[in-house]
Write a structure and sequence with these properties.
The chain has 618 residues and is an alpha+beta fold. The chain is built from 17 helices and 26 strands. The strands form seven sheets. An eight-stranded mixed sheet has the order 5-4-3-6-2-1-7-8. Helix 2 packs parallel to helix 6 and helix 12 (456-474) crosses helix 16. The model is unreliable at 334-346, 374-391 and 406-421 (pLDDT under 50). Residues 434-576 form the MutL C-terminal dimerisation domain. Belongs to the DNA mismatch repair MutL/HexB family.
Length: 618
């Protein structure tokens, strides 16, 4: 029997490695930008077309490469970062394995131009599917420019697994944001299909956060800083009132490398105990500086997981530092009875000789029991051209009731309602119902066999959800035009998501159009919504969509209808009139599934007379 174990050809090995390193265009963006940072670049430009499927180009002004290095960088395990195994425990660079460029070149058409500062001519290399097509001297700017074209052109199966352009662009923006946050001193730009998405000049960390996420973040940040013998911690956390319902704005960096760590994330959440609503997540950007010998970053292909020697100590430091920062900036309640500084500034000091003792004066002839003719109170609704009428009751007042009786009779004749069956219990029509609101949370309605309790928020969510779902299917959403159109600026990731959802959002009744960089103009909102802030409405709609997408894996239309229904429904604690309660019940029992809330729990609970008698009778 012949031997069966063989070495794989380099082209096949490179494609296998590419499956680990380059899973989508965002993976290639991350690797190329990190190489530019390791090259000492002060300015990095990222240019993408078709969300990276057609072109990913990274231009930097770093150290550049020699002719030999330019060719060697495309070989597997060729790296300038380490020389021996012990160097793995002293790594402070982004890359070190030497697989990224080889993996990218295996599944794309790559053109690289590079020149060192001391060289007069640069080098131009063109590689296609791991095969070097050409290599020659050329004119080039100082630094390196790498163009990755037609990603996965020779692996069509992998290309077919890519998502739509807006989805892939959101992943690219996520990677870009992480690298830009970790390196605020570097100038970054991002262009997509000829439009500038980000223009980030070198600045302090707080300015970089504001440039990335919007000007409204300037007032949301609380600084965190702690120096210990184990780690040095610095960064910012968001104020509790601005916490969101979805993860995604939590950033941990260890030695300026973005990581995902549920254990350390729990440390931050613990520091926010009793300050956050349920299922809310705070914003934070935290940097951990630690001795590289005390961590191991070579445990995952994407290098986003790290092993620590002393996890518990790091957990405790992060928790206490964040908690102290929240208390220091008066975010958490404190038992401090000292006078506030702001009150001291309101007191103007005077010379001692100018201070006059207070005096008391009184009228000795004052008689509290003496009667005094006081002017009568004015009642505007009793006036008649400035004169008071002796008789405030008008003549023929009883005719007013006859009109109201006629109107009510006509109304009852026009709206003849049927009895509705729920769980074999008949619900009376509106005119016969006896309704009560309990703690502005539940509606109690008497039925033939007992009574039922209806959760008002869950019921309204179910009504709106089915209505919005039908509007999307029929494209029948009614828009209420705004008197003054509002411009709404979103962060890059949310803007790309909104562009993807725009046709379905318009079907709900929104009238939205793009208006420049990361900005839209809201000219109308669904007629079911009123007295809402357009910016908050869009933010909450997108937040709900992302949260549902992460947890429930719903399709776009169902997800949008669910998110908008939860944001637009009347909330627990809202007082309802009798007419509003009747209308809510009528609309609920007109739904296809009236007794199922959006979270799967029941909307209605019925209590029979038998159950009540068992409780009160022996």
């Amino acid at each position: 029997m012949s031997d069966i174990i063989q070495l794989l050809p380099d082209a096949v090995a490179n494609q296998i490695a590419a499956g680990e390193v380059v899973q989508r265009p965002a993976s290639a963006v991350k690797e190329l930008i990190e190489n530019a940072i390791d090259a000492g670049a002060g300015k990095i430009q990222l240019i993408v077309k078709d969300a990276g499927k057609s072109l990913i180009q990274v231009i930097d002004d770093g150290c550049g490469m020699s002719l030999t290095d330019a060719r060697m960088c495309f070989e597997r395990h060729a790296t300038s970062k380490i020389r021996k195994a012990d160097d793995l425990f002293a790594i402070r660079t982004m890359g070190f394995r030497g697989e990224a460029m080889a993996s990218i070149a295996a599944i794309a058409q790559v053109e690289m131009k590079t020149r060192r500062h001391e060289d007069e001519l640069g080098t131009c290399i063109f590689i296609e599917g791991s095969e070097v097509i050409s290599q020659e001297a050329c004119q080039a700017n100082t630094g390196t420019s790498i163009s990755v074209k037609n990603l996965f052109y020779n692996t069509p199966a992998r290309r077919n697994f890519l998502k739509s352009n807006p989805v892939e662009m959101r992943h690219i923006i996520d990677e870009f944001q992480r690298v830009a946050l970790a390196n605020p001193q570097i100038f970054f730009t991002l262009h997509h299909d000829g439009q500038e998405v980000y223009h980030l000049p070198g600045a302090a960390l707080k300015q970089r956060i504001v440039h990335l996420f919007g000007n409204n973040y300037n007032q949301r940040l609380v600084p965190v800083e702690e120096d210990t013998t184990i780690i040095n911690l610095r960064g910012f956390v968001g104020k509790p009132e601005f916490a969101r319902k979805t993860r995604g704005e939590q950033f941990f960096f260890v030695n300026y490398r973005f990581i995902r760590d549920a254990y350390l994330n729990h440390a931050v959440l613990t520091a926010f105990e009793e300050l956050l609503p349920d299922d809310s997540y705070p914003f934070y950007v935290l940097f951990i500086d630690i001795d590289p010998s005390k961590i191991d970053i070579n445990v995952h292909p994407t290098k986003t997981e790290i092993k620590y020697q002393d996890e518990k100590a790091i957990y405790a430091i992060i928790r206490s530092a964040v908690k102290r920062s929240l208390g220091r900036y008066n975010i958490t309640p404190s038992l401090d009875f000292d006078q506030e500084n702001s009150i001291e500034h309101l007191i103007t000091p005077k010379p001692f000789e100018e201070i006059v003792a207070p005096t008391i004066s009184f009228n000795p002839n004052f008689n509290p029991f003496a009667t005094e003719k006081r002017p009568e109170r004015e009642h505007p609704f009793l006036k008649d051209n400035g004169n008071y009428k002796n008789d405030p009751i008008p003549k023929n007042w009883d005719t007013l009731y006859e009109i109201s009786k006629k109107e009510s009779n006509l109304q009852h004749e026009m709206h003849e309602e049927k009895r509705i069956a729920v769980d074999d219990q008949e619900v009376s029509k509106s005119s016969e119902r006896q309704l009560f609101q309990i703690h502005n949370r539940f509606i109690l309605s008497q039925i033939k066999s007992g009574f039922m309790l209806i959760g008002q928020q869950a019921a309204h969510e179910r009504i709106l959800y089915e209505r919005f779902l039908q509007q999307q299917q029929n494209h029948s959403g009614v828009s209420q035009q705004s008197l003054f159109p509002q411009s709404v600026t979103l962060n890059g990731s949310d803007f790309e998501l909104l562009k993807e959802l725009l046709p379905d959002i318009k079907a709900l009744g929104f009238d939205i159009r793009e208006f420049g960089k990361n900005t839209v103009v809201v000219e109308g909102i669904p007629a079911e919504l009123s007295n809402v802030d357009e910016h908050e409405l869009l933010e909450h709609l997108l937040e709900g969509f992302k949260n549902n997408m992460a947890i429930l894996k719903l399709d776009k239309r169902d997800n949008l209808a669910r998110s908008l229904a939860r944001n637009a429904a009347i909330k627990t604690g809202t007082k309802l009139s009798l007419e509003e309660m009747n209308q809510l019940i009528d609309q609920l029992f007109a739904c296809q599934t009236p007794n199922q809330a959006l979270n799967g729990k029941p909307v209605i609970s019925t209590f029979t007379m038998t159950e009540l008698l068992e409780r009160f009778e022996k």
